[in-house]
Description:
Strand order of the largest sheet: 2-1-3-6-5
Largest sheet: 5 strands, mixed
Radius of gyration: 28 Å
Helix content: 40-55%
Number of strands: 13
Shape: globular
Amino acid sequence: MLPYLGICHAAALLILTLAALRSSPLDWITKLNAAILAGWTNLVLTAVVLSFGSALGQPVLFAAVSTVIAVGSALLLAGAGLMPATPGKPLVSFLEDRPRLARLLLAFFVITGAGVLLGNLIIALAYLPNNPDTVTYRLSRIYWYRDAGSLAHFGTGIDARSIFYPFNGALLQYPIALYRWTNRLFSLVPFVAWTIIGLTVFRIARDLGACRTVAAGTAWLAALTPGVVVQATSTNDEILAAFPLLIAVQFAIRFHRGGAVADLCLALIAAALSIGTKLHAVFYWPVIVAAAGWLAWRLASGDRWDLSWPTSRRAVLTVSTLALCAVLAGAFVVPNWRASGALMDTGFSDLVLNKPFKLLAGLQNLVLHAVQAAASPLPDLNPARDIQARLSFHTAFNQAAAGLFTWVNQGPEYMSVSYRFVGPSQSTGWYLGENSVDIGFVYLIGVVAFGVALRRRIAVGIALGSAFVAWFVTYSLMTRYIEGFSVYLNYAFIVASPGLVFFWLKGSRRFDALRLALLGFAAATHLVLDANVLRFNVSRNLGTARVATSWPVNPPAVDATIVEAIKANGGARLMATHWEVAYWYLIVPYKEGRYSVASPHLPDPGGLNIFSFQKLPVYSYVPIRIPDKRSPGLTLIGSYGSAYGPEWAFATGRGVDEQVSSRSRYVVLQLQEQTNFGQQAASTLDILPTVWGLAPADALQFRYVLRGSGGEETVSDWSDAPARALPRPANLKGSTLVVEIREKDSPKAPVVTEFPLGSTEPFALPDAPS
């Protein structure tokens, strides 16, 4: 029944919004964008309201409150007096005296755009989300909010991103989890956002006076930029944050040209939704400061503007709009402050930000990001299908350019965590995934467009171009080098992309001919890069979708025994045993269950607790079964796949050890090297003091033998404490750690396990299938 309740709820919102906009003279794209803002705002407000009573997980109540809010927003929309955009002076393009070329280009944009649209739609339908961050916290947190009943922090000692990050993106997708709709909708959300981006750029270009062909070409250049194409099926937050900010640009331009305060209100609401989705907007702070200074200067000079207010109660409208924007942009900080006394967790950002600020680190970062944005599309043009061939090509490309970057400082003040600059193409460039594909060569179009706007003093073009440059420079200066900057760059590009319309303005005959050639180059490379992304993206591609026997191509690879255990207990508490646990893969096979997440040190004594550990020894988890151990320890309930490869799922609680006693009484040790993210060589191999599944009553003793690859051995004494710091061999890979465990002072032979250090082959457990 829940899916049908959700359909009725969605239908009610749609009917109310359409009724509010039915008589409006707006074009259909602007109506669509206004409806999106109203619907998304509705979901956020409903969630905030229900959180106060811990009723967020009540579907009937959610639908009822949401519908009441929708009635109010429909009345406001109907009375807002939204009017068509004020006609601008037509933009005369270099296609004006080339009507035949204009018709051919329009056909080209429509046909090729439809082809890429179809390709991305197939991928969105064929694949469930598989981005590592998405399956770790973006989608998982939706279920944790649902089952906790509120937007408050639902755990401690867990990935801070899942509780501290803005939640508007999660709430946009919340009905999918609440009403138990098909999981495929999660992949369609960013796809729809991508289509809205294309439509909005087209509408802005038309509002600025561009003809249909120029507007279509501008939208084509923006939406078919390769990095934007791959974002359309990535399930990243960046595209969800970018498209409302692009809508804000649309309504801000309408306000700038027509002075309608209703447009300004919608622009502010759209910007607030974006900020409450992802905080990338903070890197616009120089633009915001400059704009505030300009406004203050104009007001101090006595300038006033002729504004069109939708109501005589101007103060009420102003206060209400600002209050609503504050909720949409900043509601997430309230649970953060209540739980921690801080607005945001700085643990993760401290590893990335350039703090304490070092100018040379910021300038180096600026140069490196500019180099990668400009040059990384070159190896991406390689049409080779074979993965190894692509890897070799990218490696050779970086090696050829290596001599130009011998000056790069790879020290900890310049590099974030374990990231290192490896060349113009980052180390994962050959994946052709969302973390590595940049904006192609459209930056050449952007440079020309910005130059034309500057020369002709076109305020909109100058503002959009300056905002992009300011964001790029500010981000680079304020952070240390990371890989994956492409994701963030595409966010800023999407917001500024309407400025590309000024590339088309008619100029001298020679300049027009040069721009036509540049347009041809950008369009051709766009298509090659898009084709490569659609065909060769390692995570999602058309080739695999075409030959798959069924869709989705990638159902979560979770053993039936895990799903059965979760079903039998009505859900589970998922333990944060390591970074990037693929929680969502454990949730979706039984989405009717109730789930929570917690530190592995805080299991629920009355529930089923699932602990995840990677099988590959390189990740340094050592499971050992002690058959005569007094406590049940951990019970192996199966395996599942993640971005790390195969992982074991162990469990405690609800008598799970009695159900599969042959797989109980496991302990798991964790190894670690102190390297400061690879910046320094470790001198010891550390066995950490925490042993999962070990109870004080077990009274176990531990001894270790570390055998180097050259035959040398280090032997420790027996000790009640598991922790050790063993001298590290020169070459860890190929070495073996022998772990011996016995009952204290027992004459029984110890349990002996040989663990291959650094191996990338799954470690086989002797008492269980691998």
